[in-house]
Amino acid sequence: MSKPIVTRFAPSPTGYLHIGGARTALFNWLYAQHTGGTMLLRIEDTDRERSTDAATAAILDGLKWLGLTWEGEPISQFARAERHREVAEELVAKGAAYRCYATPAELDEMREKAKAEGRPPRYDGRWRDRDPSEAPAGVKPAIRIKAPREGETVVMDRVQGEVRFPNKDLDDFIILRSDGNPTYMHAVVVDDHDMGVTHIIRGDDHLTNAARQTVIYQAMNWEVPVMAHIPLIHGADGAKLSKRHGALGVEAYREMGYLPEALCNYLARLGWSHGDDEIMTIEDMVRWFEIEDVNKGAARFDFAKLEAVNGVHMRRMDDAALTAALIDTLPYLPNGEATLTKLDDGKREQLSAAMPGLKERAKTLLELADSAGYLFATRPLPLDEKAAQILDADARKVLSDAHDALLSVEDWSAASAEAAVREVAEKAGLKLGKVAQPLRAALTGRSTSPGVFDVLAVLGKQESLGRLSDQIG
Fold first, then answer.
1. pTM, whole model, 2 decimals?
2. DSSP letter string, 103-167
3. Please, what's the b/e burial string for 39-66 (b: 16 or more CB within 10 A of its CB; e: otherwise)?
4. What is the CA radius of gyration of the chain?
5. In this predicted model, what pLDDT tens digit does every residue of 320-335 receive, in sequence order?
6. CB of 402 closer than 8 Å to CB of 435
7. Per-residue pLDDT tens for 128-137?
């Protein structure tokens, strides 16, 4: 019986959870869910100068918002330094690693010589086979792995295929620094082994690390996990992803009004596909995700595509669920806190009633909140520039007639309001739009809105007539 699959996400807490990291976490989570396995979380906080508690909190918050859960408590890499030292000493005892007493000056000399000879800088192995009794006094040694010098180290990668690395290029790299601190290369291997990680899914910028890490696994006679190195995300122009392309923290996408489900859908489709399926639920992704289906080539981030995907998810959402999602997101949106203070039961009911019309034209929760602004506006409504232009003297005369007609409507609804307004248009010999436009401007303060009769129905008779009266003067 095969052992359960264990994946891990291992971010460095030196900043927010950026979009590339979020996709790596998503792929690890999807694969664990798909196979009935588990995903673990390790915080790679060995860089003490740059690691912060605030960054760790932001990463955890971002993962939770996306719905990417992990098993157990997050593991601190820094807290395991003693274990990393223990394994380094074990490798020395086995003859698979050695103490290196080369001074910084000697290492500089090696680098300069290699540069002069047109070779990549490599440690020359001068302490590989020397007796420790020759150690100079007062020099604290680093510990280096004895990398194989002949042949190749082969990484069988689920995405990149079979990747071969000539061992002569690996050199005897450091696993424990002279100050007793483990290197990243070493700590990662010890942690992944001790955590029982079976599958390592990470960015392909780590592919060269995979060869060196394989050397440590083999030196310890540990099983090498399955590797899958996924392509990096580029901008729409093909350049490496930067902030101008969308390399922002996950929290920025929440503030821009994206649904977590839609962001996961979009990120999953960056480098992975399932036939022609563009729009996927979380359940779809879990059911279909196979790591071998990830492309080798870099994916391109496209805000327009993300917006389109988000818009589809919003329109497909149940109105009550979308209303709840909007309310939950308000604290993160510009002026959202002010809207929340006005959100009593009556306004909540109005928002829910308006949702079918609102969601048809919005692509983000930010746009949705903006479109719903007319519900929370206080009288007299401020008019935007276009609405003010619409409400000229002729328009106000039309408004006056519409107000009188609507005043006599008893059974208030979108249909009854529309019938009354149509009658006004017919009597005046106007097209319906010539009456609807001034109505929209007076009711919402804008030239665009959901269907004007839906707006009348949602606002109710008293509020609608009041807003019209304000503009008739």
1. 0.91
2. -HHHHHHHHHHHHHTT-------TTSSS-GGGPPTTPPPEEEE----SSEEEEEETTTEEEEEEG
3. bbbbbbbbeeeebeeebbebbbbbbebb
4. 31
5. 999 999 999 999 999 8
6. yes
7. 888 888 888 8
Roughly what angle, to the nearest 10 degrees, separates helices 461-472 and 393-407?
150
The C-alpha angle with vertex 364 and arms to 11 and 280, in degrees rounded to 5, equals 65
Spatial separation of the C-alpha atoms in residues 35 and 37, rounded to whole Å: 5
Phi (first) and psi of residue 44, to 5 degrees: -90, 80
One-letter amino acid at 19 equals I
Q: Which of 168, 243, 296, 386 is catalytic?
A: 243
d(CA 187, CA 192): 8
243 is in an annotated binding site: yes
Q: Which DSSP state fits 27?
A: H
Amino acid present at 427? K
Domains of the chain: 1-70+231-316 (3.40.50.620), 79-230 (3.40.50.620), 385-472 (1.10.10.350)
Mind giving me the DSSP string for 211-245?
HHHHHHHHHTTPPPPEEEEEPPEE-TTSSBP-TTT
Residues 8 and 40: beta-carbon distance below 8 Å: yes
Q: How far apart are CA 141 and CA 147, in angstroms?
A: 18
Is residue 427 very low, low, confident or very high in pLDDT (cuts 50, 70, 90)?
very high
Is residue 243 among the annotated active site residues?
Answer: yes
- The tokens for 317 are 């959402």
